[in-house]
Every structure is written in structure tokens, then in C-alpha cells.
């Protein structure tokens, strides 16, 4: 539901008009990504069926007539892998290549209205991810649990990974709509719908396994909290209450650094410091 509340307490009529026009313009894209009820064939990540993709040229491929269905045999897995490949390509091109100029303008207006209505949640969360994803050399290292900061030269790079309890394809669409596609690549979007978050976290650890890699989980649910505890990773719980330092706006890399320090700099931390 699209909503804007004016000072008089009434919803802005123009907001609903923008929403209807944007949704109308998205029909072709939505029809593609949800074609043949693809949500019934959810996979934990887009590359899950890559071994079945034979690299066929899909320029003239008709997904509406390829007969994707049950059983889940190699033939249907290949068809689904084709669709995943094209969805990944569309994701990489970004929303501006899916919307025309007018629709993009309308969506930007709706985004700004939504951001204002949520007290800047969207823009501040995006800014936080931008800070996280910037690889750089900094003189500020990890903040300790007592608030002291060690000043040492260190080069680091953060990788943003999304693990959602929703199905995969709609979650990728949400990343596009909320301007997160250049901060979270499609390879780094996981659906825990069937597999659960512990399994997703284990896959992520295997992907990025290295002697100098550390992980941190940020979320507001019990499942990711328990999964982080099982993996012995720091967990930053989002607090939705206004004024909290653990919400958006509010959460900072300095705060996250405290959690890193408590877990990884403690005597019981993992030896490999993943």
C-alpha cells in the first residue's frame, strides 16, 4: 500500500496515482520474473542450478512456451537455470534499464515519499551499506568493547550479503526497487525459505572462507540470531523503536565494530577469525 500523510492527516492523492502508474509500468517485468509461477520453484540463490546451464543463446528463447514444470528432472532444472541466468542479467543492468524515463521519475518520487514517511530509513540504511561496501585503507581499526579505538593502518573490504526468509526472485526485485542492486550483487542474495538461515550462513562461510575473513549478522529476527550464535558470529539486533541507535538512521560502523571486538578479540573467538 502506498501512503502519504499530510499535515491534515490525509493521504496524498498524487502518491496513489504515482504508485498505480509505476505498478502498471512494471507489469511486463513482473510477468517475466514470475512467469510460469517461478515462485513455486524457489532456489536458495541464483547460481544453485548453474551446473545445468549449457550456455545456450537465449536471445530468441520463449520462456512462456518452454514447458517448465514438474517433475524436477534435469530438463526442467536446465530451463529454470536459463531463467535464472536472464534474471541475473536484468538485475545487473539495473532498474533504469527496465523502466522508461517517465516511470523512473515516478518511482524516484515514490521512493522519496516513502523514505520521508519512514524518517529516512531507506536512505540511511543504503548509506550504511555504502560505507560497509567501501574497500579502503583506514587508520581506525576495530573499536574495543570499552569504547577505546585502536589506531592502526589496515586495508579492508566489506561485502554485503542478504539472507532473506522470503522467496528469491521477489527479493531480487525488492533490491532493485530500493536501490540496493549496486550494493548487493545478485550472487550475494540468498533465500532461506526452504533451507533455513543456518544452512545459508554455512554456504556463505564456505564461499568466503579465509584466514582473515570475519562475519557479522545484522537483523531483527530470532532465526538469524540463533544462526549467528551457532556460527559464533556477532549479531547486531535491529531495534525498530524510534530513537534507538540500532535502527536506521542510527546504526553506524563504529557500533558494529564493538560487536566485532567482543566476539573476535575475546579469548573464546575462533582461531581462524572468520
TrEMBL record:
Q: Give the reactions, separated by semicolons, that this protein catalyses.
A: O-phospho-L-tyrosyl-[protein] + H2O = L-tyrosyl-[protein] + phosphate
Q: Which NCBIfam families match?
A: EYA-cons_domain
From which residue to which does any coiled coil extend? none
Q: Where is the signal peptide?
A: none
Its Enzyme Commission number(s) read 3.1.3.48
Q: Which organism is it from?
A: Quercus rubra
Q: Which domain of life is it from?
A: Eukaryota
Q: Which cofactor does it need?
A: Mg(2+)
Q: Which residues bind Mg(2+)?
A: 220
Keyword line: Hydrolase, Magnesium, Metal-binding, Protein phosphatase
Q: Which Gene3D superfamilies match?
A: 3.40.50.12350
Q: Extract the InterPro entries matched here.
A: EYA (IPR028472), EYA_dom (IPR006545), EYA_dom_sf (IPR038102)
List cellular component terms (GO): nucleus
| Similarity comment | Belongs to the HAD-like hydrolase superfamily. EYA family.
Q: Give the GO biological process terms.
A: cell differentiation; positive regulation of DNA repair
Q: How is the cofactor bound?
A: Binds 1 Mg(2+) ion per subunit.
What name appears for this protein in its UniProt entry? protein-tyrosine-phosphatase
Q: List the molecular function annotations (GO) for this entry.
A: metal ion binding; protein tyrosine phosphatase activity
Q: Which residues cross the membrane?
A: none
